[in-house]
Structures are given as structure tokens and as C-alpha cells.
Fold:
Amino acid sequence: MGGKITYIFLATVLVLVFGVVAMEGVLLLLTGEPAAMGMGAVAFVLPCIGGWFLWANTRFARSANRLARTLEAEDGLPVDDLLRTPGGRVDRDAADAVFARRQAETEEAPGDWRTWFRLAVAYHDARDTPRARKAMQRAITLHEQTPDDEKPDGEKSARPDNGPVDNGPVRTV
Structure:
């Protein structure tokens, strides 16, 4: 829970910084000097890029947490029983052993989002964050592609099924 509060706090501060940068951009545009106006225009681009980055990361985290809740309900979350160093970090040899097992599971069932989720956790434990994010993104993509009838009741998509789409009469040439 502390991680969520920290994330919300930092996201709020970041949005406030974006607002200040945009306001400074307006002030620079109002000066009428070409160099200042150019910097003012750039000041609008930076909050847009930062906003997109914040939105994409928030969406990623929410999706990963949704998958974790689903796996927890299925009693399929990986157990965190890895050896740790005195400082609290996961022991590298223990993480590598679990990683090899998770990689083999994923190779056996490459279309199952659950194996990709567990592989992402193994990558994270092995301190390979870029690959952990890619594996988690793959798990999210596979989960989103899973038909609704295979998902638990709480995981049904929010999109209504309006039946077949009628595209009007078909023209032949």
C-alpha cells in the first residue's frame, strides 16, 4: 500500500510540475522575442511527452496489478521463497535457478499469459528490469487477447458485445 501512496504522490507532483512548465511556456510566448517564443513552444511539448510517459507507466502498472490479482485468485502467484542476502536482496544463484525453471515453463506454453507473468517476476528477481518489463508487457497483451469466456467473471471486458456489424450492402465490381 505504501508503494501506491508514493506513486500517487509523485505522479501528482509531476503533474504540478507539468503545469508550471506549461505556464512558463505561456509567459515565454508572450514576450514576443523569437528565441523566447521557441523555448515557450518547446515548453508545451515537454509536458505532453511527460504526460504520455506517466499515463503509459500508470496503465502498465494497473494492468500488471490486475494480472497479479487474477493469478492470486487462481492461487497461481509465484511463491517468494528465494534466499536473500543480509541486505534483503534476492540471492543471485537462487534467482537464476528459478529463472531457468520459469523460462522452460514459458517455452512449453508460449501462449499462456500466466507463464509470461511468472517469467517477468523471475527476470525481476534476477535484476533484469528491461526484460522483466517486456515479459510483463507480453503477459498483458496475451491476457487482453484471451476471449472473455475464458476469463473469470471479474475480468470480463468492459466493451459491450453488440453482435455482428452490418456494413451495408456489398458492392461487386
About this structure: DSSP finds five helices and no strands in the chain. The CA atoms of residues 80 and 152 lie 25 Å apart.
